[in-house]
DNA sequence: GTGCCATGAGGTCATATGACTGCCATTTCT
DNA sequence: AGAAATGGCAGTCATATGACCTCATGGCAC
């Protein structure tokens, strides 16, 4: 039997979902909360297997509540269920630790199936939200790869060109009247900006990106 | 009619999928590739609506091929279809720009449905792989928040403590016999490591994390 | 009183240096 | 010959500095 806590500020929605869950032999709605704060209290009181959590609620929103519940119990299984699937909601919910994200547009059967998945420890994200998640994922990866690739500065550019001519650090240092350590440092920073690990690859990428 | 290009090195798999697609009235398999390089050539030749791409192939793997096809045509709709759903494959495929990721364990009906989704511009990731994607997403978010929080170094630590005592940059500079600019620089780095934007917040976070 | 400018403080960025680590090859010791 | 010491080169990290930007504030001209 899957014990469920439902948090939603709309009475009608709670009643509707309650009805749906009654149709399922293996599910029992053990408590209902009308806002995030209540959800946290009731979670501690009932230790339900799965929490169905709305986002837009007074007092404390569902994402904040989810975060706090998971701080209390890292194994909490929270399924966020909301009307709108904007990027912000999907991202924040899943990063808060929710095991699933569904739009209220789904059918009762899909909801039940998602609850079972989450209860088994699997993830449940509806098809539309996956697209949103993917977009967010790629954006994040992009940011991660170029945290500060404001392109190379003058010195780095200059030194990359000399590297491409197979000059050693010492040679470059003499040419630019700088300490060898300084050259090494510029190269180190340059490698990071180009996301590579040695001068050969840097030259390669430099040519690809038309920096040379 | 959805025109499909299939890339898989196993003849048997190609034949099987070919059979499955023949059952669908709205799909036509227009070309078959046995490796990534062929897939690229055939993509350019036939401009299919959707590409079904295996990962493990000789000559050039499917992920690399997907990446190159998308470089040629940003609207290419590629659905990666593979035997194993390890984190590495899911992450690399989706970051390469694939619109979907499915395990070969799925049913023919699910494959057709996924192909239609992808053709409509939606994303299609099977339930198991979503869990993997989510894990990777959270890891990445974690990395992003602490890119290099190897904790503060001695100087930064020292200066944070002085900031907490409401010393100005000039005062700190005199106390440590350093230039004021140097202090500003340390503080700037320190703010980045603590993910905040001014000294007040830095002290706040410093206390929270027990650095003070 | 109002508006403008000078000033100073905080913060960011490019620049510069040397200590230290790790790898590789060459030489030296056994 | 094989193992061990040595030296050089690449790369990373903490350290240090000053030029420049922004913003708030206070005084001055009107």
UniProtKB/TrEMBL annotation, chains A, B:
Entry keyword annotation includes Transmembrane: no
Protein name per Swiss-Prot or TrEMBL: Response regulator transcription factor
Keywords: DNA-binding, Phosphoprotein
Organism of origin: Gilvimarinus gilvus
Positions carrying 4-aspartylphosphate: 54
InterPro entries in alphabetical order: CheY-like_superfamily (IPR011006), NreC/VraR/RcsB-like_REC (IPR058245), Sig_transdc_resp-reg_C-effctor (IPR016032), Sig_transdc_resp-reg_receiver (IPR001789), Tscrpt_reg_LuxR_C (IPR000792), WalR-like (IPR039420)
UniProt KW Iron keyword: no
SMART domains: HTH_LUXR (SM00421), REC (SM00448)
Domain Response regulatory: start-end pairs: 3-119
Ranges where the HTH luxR-type domain occurs: 144-210
């Amino acid at each position: 039997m899957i014990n469920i806590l439902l948090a939603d500020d709309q009475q009608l929605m709670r009643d509707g979902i309650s009805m749906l869950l009654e149709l399922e032999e293996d599910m029992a709605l053990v408590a209902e909360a009308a806002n995030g704060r209540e959800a946290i209290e009731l979670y501690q009181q009932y230790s339900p297997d799965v929490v169905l959590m709305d986002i837009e609620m007074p007092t404390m929103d569902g994402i904040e509540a989810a975060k706090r519940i998971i701080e209390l119990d890292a194994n909490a299984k929270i399924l966020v269920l909301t009307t709108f699937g904007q990027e912000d909601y999907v991202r924040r919910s899943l990063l808060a630790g929710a095991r699933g994200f569904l739009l209220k547009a789904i059918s009762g059967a899909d909801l039940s199936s998602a609850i079972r998945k989450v209860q088994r420890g699997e993830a449940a994200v509806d098809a539309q939200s996956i697209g949103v998640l993917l977009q967010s994922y790629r954006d994040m990866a992009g940011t991660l790869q170029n945290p500060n690739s404001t392109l190379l500065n003058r010195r780095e550019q200059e030194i990359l060109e000399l590297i491409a001519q197979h000059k050693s650090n010492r040679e470059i240092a003499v040419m630019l009247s700088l300490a060898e350590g300084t050259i090494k440092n510029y190269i180190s920073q340059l490698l990071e900006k180009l996301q590579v690990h040695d001068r050969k690859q840097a030259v390669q990428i430099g040519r690809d990106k038309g920096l040379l």
